[in-house]
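We were asked to recover a plausible sequence for a given structure. The inputs and outputs are reproduced exactly as logged, with field labels preserved.

PROBLEM: sequence recovery
POSITIONS: 205
GIVEN STRUCTURE:
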């Protein structure tokens, strides 16, 4: 027992370290969003929260490690908002609308996503594979949603599920860019709902 106590780390230190990591990830989200990933530095992130670059590197040794943590945090947030039954197409669409609504309250994350997704089109970008897989997954999901709706007779005449699945993702991403460029005066939720009403027979609030 004494040896175990000597090597164990006080629980308070774990909590402090976890809190510090969250602060770093939040600061990195802001910096990457405003400066772009390639143009930003660990020093810039460290200065944002009043710590040394060496202190930051104790938690995240490289900028790529920090980027991975930022993307994981975003995925965890999105999963918590959208965790719907993928066999229920209407529930999935409502979950996506909740995500769009949440995005309107978190402009920093929207800006980060737009900045990184544009940068990551370059194959040598550290987030290239992440975004390639993410787009494949979300487009695959939306295509399945419209296929399921079509099988249930809930699509308007002439709507092609695969094309509409791609179009919905393009609409959501394009609206984010317009939302940022117009000073956040657009209501992205209303625009997505209006589009869904044109292509489905679903009743949306």
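RECOVERED SEQUENCE:
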């Amino acid at each position: 027992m004494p040896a175990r106590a000597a090597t164990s780390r006080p629980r308070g230190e774990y909590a402090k370290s976890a809190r510090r990591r969250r602060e770093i990830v939040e600061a990195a989200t802001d910096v990457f969003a405003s400066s772009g990933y390639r143009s930003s530095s660990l020093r810039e992130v460290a200065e944002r929260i009043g710590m040394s670059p060496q202190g930051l590197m104790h938690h995240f040794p490289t900028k790529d490690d920090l980027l991975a943590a930022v993307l994981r945090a975003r995925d965890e947030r999105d999963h918590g908002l959208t965790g719907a039954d993928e066999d229920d197409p209407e529930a999935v669409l409502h979950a996506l609308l909740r995500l769009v609504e949440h995005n309107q309250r978190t402009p920093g994350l929207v800006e980060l996503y737009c900045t990184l997704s544009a940068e990551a089109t370059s194959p040598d970008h550290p987030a290239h594979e992440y975004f390639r897989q993410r787009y494949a997954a979300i487009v695959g999901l939306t295509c399945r949603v419209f296929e399921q709706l079509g099988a249930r007779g809930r699509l308007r005449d002439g709507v092609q599920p695969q094309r509409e699945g791609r179009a919905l993702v393009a609409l959501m991403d394009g609206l984010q860019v317009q939302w940022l460029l117009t000073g956040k005066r657009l209501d992205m939720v209303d625009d997505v709902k209006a589009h869904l009403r044109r292509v489905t027979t679903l009743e949306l609030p």
